[in-house]
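quick one: magnesium ion bound model?
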Amino acid sequence: MKKTIVLKVSSTKPEIRLIRLAARIIQNGGLVAFPTETVYGLGADALNPKAVKAMFKAKKRPPDNPPIIHIADKNDVYMLAKKVPKKAEKLMKALWPGPLTIILERSKILPNITVSGLDTVAIRMPRHKVALALIRESKSPIAAPSANLAGRPSPTTAEHVLRDLDGRIDLVLDCGSTRIGVESTVVDLTVNPPQVLRPGGVTYERLVKILGKVRLHPVAIADKKVKMLRARSPGVKHKHYAPRAKLILVEGSSTVAVSEKIQELVNRFMDDKKRTGVLATDETMEEYEADVVKSLGSRRNFRVIAKRLFACLREFDDEGVDIIVAEGLPLKGLGLAVMNRLRKASGYKIVKVES
Ligand code: AMP
Ligand code: MG
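yep, here:
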């Protein structure tokens, strides 16, 4: 066990003394958790194989699931990628810094372990002053997956990071809650048309507006386990986002029918003496009788829902819930990213209600 230091940093005017301290840890091969606009990342020097190896170990992350490489200067893409297609430049111009990760063919500069032996690399420029300052001061791209134990909900606060990684990493830069709350959208630009491998902070609709034709990979919208012939985005095959409680997702186009089904399931679980929670929305939460009822926010504001999602899942665990029954949401805008996380968190235990 090492001692994990926690430093509170200003997200608007990051204290350069603290950033330098963190950057020195990265340069010495250490591990620093830092905020981005999506979730907290666990950073290691992307060019240092030992540091990246330590990052995989700290997270207990399977070595076949590569991290996203974070940069602070758009020009660094040309160093990390073998070629940068026009569509990539279009996206970088429109959406960076921001919650978009692009997949490109990789150059030779990155060690094999950093890309899990793939011939591609995932790159992103985050929209967060602390993240950008840390990358700049470290003078190296930073490999950073989400700063949680593999399989757990992603961390949106420094407390979540500590809950999973205290004693396993060197430092956490604490800036409070992250703004977006779900991870970046991952777009593969090595295929034509480009393909969304993971929905996230940038909506599909927005990508279509910028690029014209964009496909959603079946895994991005899957409501059951999908086999991938070639592991294009290795992360998608692993268990993900799961609270300790079992999660069941109820989906259907009629909110009334969905709510009725949820209550029916809750009654059954409570009869079986299971401590049961409902993950609801502001519009429906009053309707449920369960041990714990939580609202993600209003169905009219998916930004709030996305921001609260992972914290809510962790709160059910804190309250000792055995089973969570969650309401399905429309697959539009940020709803697609939220539903992708909920479906995976449920291990595809999904009940469909026809109206
Ligand atoms: P995380 O940062 O934990 O949210 O995980 C990073 C995500 O990026 C995972 O879903 C990875 O599978 C994905 N990723 C990283 N590198 C690549 C790559 N070269 N090709 C496709 N997906 C990637
Ligand atoms: Mg992750």
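The chain has eleven helices and 16 strands.
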